[in-house]
Amino acid sequence: MRGLAAGLLICLAPAAFTQKAPEPEAVIPIWTGPAPGSEAWTQKEIKYRNPQTGERMVRNVVTPTLTAYLPDPSKATGTGVVVCPGGAFLFLSWDSEGTEVAQWLAAHGVAAFVLKYRLISTPAPEPEFHTTLAALFAGIAAASRDGNVERLLDNTDPGNVRALAAADGRQALRLVRERSKEWGLSPDRIGMMGFSAGGFVTMAAVLDDDEHNRPNFAAPIYGGDENGRAIPSGAPPLFILVANDDALMAAGSVKLYSDWRAAGRPAELHVFSKGGHGFGMTPHGLPVDHWITLFGDWLRVQGLLKSKH
Fold first, then answer.
1. What's the rounded Cα separation, in Å, for the pair 259 and 263?
2. pLDDT at residue 246 greater than cutoff 60
3. What are phi and psi of 239, to 5 degrees?
4. Which domains are present in the chain?
5. Those residues with Cβ within 8 angstroms of residue 132's Cβ, 6 or more apart along the chain or in another chain
6. What are the backbone angles phi and psi of residue 114, rounded to the nearest 5°?
């Protein structure tokens, strides 16, 4: 629990953007017009920085977008990944679980698209936002004791925003496939990865009844489960990664692997002894700092880091 709370506590205090981030290729709205289901929303998106690391954060997302990071054409593999940052559906860890992951993928020939999906509305004033997060931590403590992640998500999402976020994930996947030729991608090599809440967005697409809405491969990182749904016969291969001291998601990640294996679907599981919840790309001086190289190795084994052309 301490690692999980620490991972979220550092996201509390907003601050103005002061450092220049690497420029993405493009920012693309995923819906034409207002996103369906939230047309009446009036909250304003807020960007702030993690006070300990300086990493960018986002909350109160109303307009879902994809931010594209495309590889050098000489390195391009034709593989694409939609990256879904986490943040308990209250905020997005935009850099640690988004842009920094995308930059690593692009450097290795994979086109990456960071998804800014809709979130639960939080009070704009900082003190009230802190109160909202304090209530979240209380729910996390209870969920950590009984392992009931779904109850935590339901209790903190009275407006069913989680379903809207899942719809954003599926729409993002469809958009990347539809425009795959434009970006030099193979439509049958479009994957999805997500962290914490983003893992649940990812798994919602993986388990979609329509196979055309599913990614060709997926990586739920300390997040995501089946939520009682049957595993489709053509479910994609999974790369699952978590830390053993993640009180909220360690057991669920192991169960996800076991269920995938029992269904006869390919999966790979990595469990680090330490790392807590929400480590992302932030260095902690632990072996977990190198998790993304394992993901790269897995992509290579799947044939996704080698061009089809």
1. 6
2. yes
3. -115, 115
4. 2-301 (3.40.50.1820)
5. 90, 122, 123
6. -85, 125
